[in-house]
Specification:
2 copies of one chain form a homodimer. Chain A is of the alpha/beta class. Chain A contains 7 helices and 12 strands. In chain A, strand 4, helix 2 and strand 5 form a beta-alpha-beta unit. Chain A is globular. At the A-B interface, strand 8, strand 9, strand 10, helix 6 and helix 7 of A face strand 8, strand 9, strand 10, helix 6 and helix 7 of B. Strand 8 of chain A pairs antiparallel with strand 10 of chain B.
């Protein structure tokens, strides 16, 4: 079945205390978003890659592509929407019905190929798979009296790519439109439409870059992986 | 009020794929546990520091102290117990009743002084404060049918030091002894004894070192902070 990757890069950069949206900050001298696209291109250069970007960043992106001589086949850009939900839906609306699609955060450039593989390995009767990792710190839930301890072994934090049967995901996004603001990821859109989601093993390297410390961490992991490759 | 720090270093090193317990792996050339002790010594050299270590690691620790010429005043070592609960209780049993105590993970060497300060700032009527940070990834809870999405904005992950009125904590540990295995941190011991815990703002740099990637990350953060100090 044809494979698609939707890379969502909607960041406005506010949390990084900088005017550059975080997807354009550099890891080892190249913008995060390019590193993310390259991770999927290395995984499968034939997969169709759709990058969702705020419309006002299109010109800047084109300048960056020239500056870095960045050229990837099977890549196109679509404009983002008001929320993450609307951004993903904009991409889905440009896509056919048949296929399997991974939705990925533009600021997760270090996703290992093995994690992508396992997510895309949907068996008959499975409509979605997402990478998850155990919670290593103690976990608390906010409540009316302040907060209370939760048993962290019963929780998982979720990464991307979140991978789905394309037809089923498109239908779930249509159904979810009236409550678009309540979803933080694609798996919850699918669940709200009544579908079961499989958890596969994520990776501690598959971090989301949201703070300056995350960028520092990503650089360290990238350099180490690169050094390991060159051995 | 007199201030105490209990540093719990019970790691056997299994998750690091190495025979060296993770508290003895090096950050910028010095064992993690020494870096952790130094963080508290810089914060308040007069605070009494009690390190809990498995008894079979005492000799190795003494060798390391000689090798690194490591000498910190107001520091003593007590033997660990069967679980984290028993390790902390072993330390508490050697301490007086009056005071304020911070319980800290031996493998969190990067705790900022400001986080320690805020935790130790207990107001009248407050018996405990712990540092917490928002959950940045989507969160799921395991259930009978697999898992379901949770609203991550209602959750916090918890770091250390967890700081308490010493008398109250000692009583809570006595009370919790029959269900020792059910606690993953000190705040939950206090809550089981009926006490309210205050959340203060943690730090994304205050990571717990449990995997090789964490060690790499800690090195990167340490080097950056060091460079910033020397400017």
């Amino acid at each position: 079945m044809k494979r698609y990757i939707v890379i969502v890069a909607g960041g406005k950069g506010l949390r990084m205390k900088t005017d550059i949206p975080k997807q354009f900050l550099c890891i080892a001298g190249k913008p995060v978003l390019m590193r993310t696209i390259e991770a999927f291109d290395r995984w499968d250069s034939n997969a169709e890659k759709i990058v969702v970007l705020p419309k006002e960043q299109f010109d800047y992106w084109n300048e960056l592509c020239q500056k870095y001589s960045f050229s990837i086949s099977n890549l196109r850009i679509v404009p983002g929407g008001e929320t993450r939900f609307h951004s993903v839906k904009n991409a889905l609306d440009t896509m056919p019905t048949e296929g399997i699609v991974g939705i990925h955060d533009g600021v997760r450039p270090l996703v290992p190929a093995q994690v992508i593989d396992e997510c895309f390995d949907l068996k008959p009767g499975e409509y979605g798979a997402i990478p998850a990792v155990p919670v290593t710190d103690s976990l608390r839930q906010i409540d009316a009296s302040g907060s209370h301890a939760e048993d962290r072994s019963r929780f998982r934090t979720v990464q991307t790519p979140q991978v789905f049967d394309l037809r089923t995901l498109k239908a779930a996004y249509e159904k979810g439109l009236p409550t678009a603001h309540s979803f933080t990821d694609d798996a919850s859109v699918m669940e709200a439409a009544g579908h079961h989601i499989k958890l596969v093993e994520g990776s501690c390297q598959n971090i989301k870059i949201t703070t300056p410390t995350d960028l520092l961490i990503a650089n360290a992991i990238f350099e180490q992986n690169n050094a390991a490759c060159q051995k």
